[in-house]
Amino acid sequence: MSADLQPAPAPELPPLSGTPLFLLTIAISLATFMEILDMTIVNVSVPAISGSLGVSTTEGTWTVSSYQLASAVMQPLTGWIGRRFGEVRTFIASIVLFMVFSALCGFATSMPMLVVFRLMQGLVSGPIMALGQALLLRNYPIKKRGVALGTWGMVVIVAPIFGPILGGLITDHLTWPWLFYINIPVGLFAAAMIASILKGRESKRVKLPIDAVGLGLLVIGVGSLQYMLDNGNELDWFGSPIIIAAAVVSTVSLVFLVPWELKDKHPIVDLHFFQRRNFRVGTACVAVAYFAFMGSNIIFPLWLQTNLGYTATLAGLAVAPVGILALVIAPILGKNMHRIDLRIVVSGAFFVFMCTMYWMAQLNQSATFLQLAAPRFWQGLGVTAFFLALNQITLSSVKPDELASATGISSFFRTISGSIATAVSVWLWNRRADFHHTVLGEHIRSSAYGWSQLQAKLQSLNISGDRALQYVDQVLTQQALTLGANDMFYLFSILFVFLIPAVWLAKPPFGSRGAEGAH
Question: Are residues 205 and 219 in the same domain?
Answer without folding.
Answer: no
